[in-house]
Amino acid sequence: METDALLDGVVTSWDDPRGLGEITAADGRTFALQCTDLADGSRTTEAGAAVTFGVRPGHRGRWQAVAVTRR
Predict the structure, then answer these.
(1) pLDDT, tens digit, for every residue of 2-17?
(2) Among 24, 38, 42, 44, which residue's beta carbon has the most beta carbons within 10 A?
């Protein structure tokens, strides 16, 4: 997977107390989301938010969303 490409997707789950969630990209792939990767610094979002994001290798070989911005 190209790590410099930007993807569009939707936050499909979000646990505010833990600051963790998941994004589903337009092509159906899912990516882990951490509050520290929200580009606006807010550390919070909600399920259903449309976003644009990059990816990087994450924990246990799973791809993780980075530089997440709302569309």
Answers:
(1) 667 899 999 999 999 9
(2) 38
Q: Which domain holds residue 30?
A: 7-70
Calculate the alpha carbon distances from 60 to 13, 23, 45, 51, 64 in Å: 20, 17, 24, 24, 10
| Three-state DSSP class for residue 22 | strand
Q: Please, which residues have CB within 8 angstroms of residue 4's CB and are 6 or more apart in sequence?
A: 54
- 11 within a domain of the structure (yes/no): yes
Q: The whole model's pTM is what? A: 0.91
Closest Cα partner for 33 from 14, 52, 61? Answer: 14
